[in-house]
Amino acid sequence: IEPGSKRDYDAFAAMHYRMGIPTKATGAVLAFVWGLSAGWLVRKSDSVYPAYAMHFVLVLILFLVMAFAPA
Q: How many CA within 13 A on the CB side of residue 68?
């Protein structure tokens, strides 16, 4: 599979339909958009490292929101 191919986005979205935060259609749509963005970044920069950095920032933000959001 070529990095950033549509099959990558589809698989990433399908995995987030059942697991991930959020789940179901919202999670799948967000994961699909994330996959498109990460794939574009990999192709544009010709490196996976900017996508790794973007993923780290996203996960850190999600963690902080979940850890400190009022219940």
A: 6
Q: Closest Cα to residue 34, out of 63, 5, 55, 11?
A: 55
pTM of the model: 0.66
For the segment 18-57, what is each residue's pLDDT rounded down to a tens digit?
776 677 788 788 888 888 888 889 889 999 999 999 989 9
**70: phi then psi, degrees, rounded to nearest 5:** -65, 140
Q: Phi-psi region for residue 4, left (φ > 0), alpha (ψ -120 to 50) or beta? A: left
